[in-house]
Amino acid sequence: MDLSVEIGTLRLSNPLIAASGCYGYGVEYADAVDLSTLGAIASKGLFLAPREGHPPPRIVETPSGMLNAIGLQGIGVHRYIAEKLPELRRLGATNIVNICGSTLDEYVELARILSDAEGVHALEINISCPNIKEGGITFGCSMHGTFDVVSAVKKVTHLPVIPKLTPNVTDVASIAKAAEDAGADAVSLVNTFLAMAIDVETRRPKLSNIVGGLSGPAIRPIAVRMVYECRRTVKIPVIGMGGIASAVDALEFIIAGATAVQVGTANFVDPFIWSKLTAGIEDYMRRHGVRRIADLVGSVDTSTREKEWVSS
Ligand SMILES: Cc1cc2nc3c(=O)[nH]c(=O)nc-3n(C[C@H](O)[C@H](O)[C@H](O)COP(=O)(O)O)c2cc1C
């Protein structure tokens, strides 16, 4: 069985990627998981400088999901390169570095710095974090903003560029198309959904930031629909995520059109989920006579459903 997939020039041994912000910088999990067995690790979002993030409470449990407003706490790109990358290289991890900018110039500078660092395999451009005021999602909510960031980053790097899209837009496929037109090698989606929870006893928001991003199984059907729409609109690979907690969930995204998938919130429930996901996908492939996982990508059969819908 062949689980390998290609994201632009990047070949992954399997389609399972640890989602940004839900796997630290990767090294934190090295005692529990052989990092070289993951398709890749998307790092916690990095700015040029270290950031404190928002004060607590920053996480709230919700039905079938969680709400977070971490505020992109992070060690900054220079410490990542000096302190985390050497260990990640030694452990044989495939590293997708998630970058965040308050300005277009910051994205460009980050891309330049990381392109010279040994052991970085791709850049995921975070234009979709709902939890910070400046930059980020301001770019990701418009076709022009997306186009501008992606084309500026593409000019300064040889690495595959993967803009990460926000679901907080009316038409995510048009944003994916703007990214493709700007030269993106793939798109990843979805980041979290802007959401809010209130403690009715105190009448106060449960998060210090008032609003946050919703993730976990609660968002999965919306994310699957968005992956399906993007796959129909762009030719570049789509990396899907949103509530994946089992092999069946991962397969759903792949069949909807995701070349690879990311797993975020489920890591907080089960850090050992990876071997279960792989075993479940392999079992499915065996039962369905699928030799290459790449053959499953976008294989959803909507033909009869469309006919039923038209005639009803
Ligand atoms: C605690 C937390 C921190 C996150 N931090 C980042 C981040 O730094 N950069 C980013 O692009 N996405 C970040 N995300 C979004 C996830 O990578 C992912 O897009 C989202 O949670 C949906 O996937 P899931 O339902 O599997 O968690 C974060 C999500 C959570 C829950």
Please provide a brief summary of the model.
The protein is an alpha/beta fold and 312 residues long.
Key words describing this protein structure:
19% strand, 16 strands, 34% helix, TIM Barrel, four-stranded antiparallel β-sheet, 312 residues, binds flavin mononucleotide
Average pLDDT level? 95
Helix-strand sequence: EEEEEEHEHEHHEHEEEEEHEHEHHH
The DSSP helix count reads 10
Measured between the Cα atoms of the first and last residue, the distance is 41 Å
CATH architecture: Alpha-Beta Barrel
Q: Which quaternary structure do these chains form?
A: single chain
* Cα Rg: 19 Å
DSSP, total strands: 16
Largest sheet descriptor: 8 strands, parallel
Strand content: 15-25%
Spatial sequence of strands, sheet with the most strands = 9-8-7-4-3-16-15-10
The distinct bound ligands, ions and cofactors come out as: flavin mononucleotide
Tell me, what is the CATH class?
A: Alpha Beta
Give the structural class: alpha/beta
CATH homologous superfamily name? Aldolase class I
How many domains make up the coordinates?
A: 1
Low-confidence sequence ranges: none
Rough shape?
globular
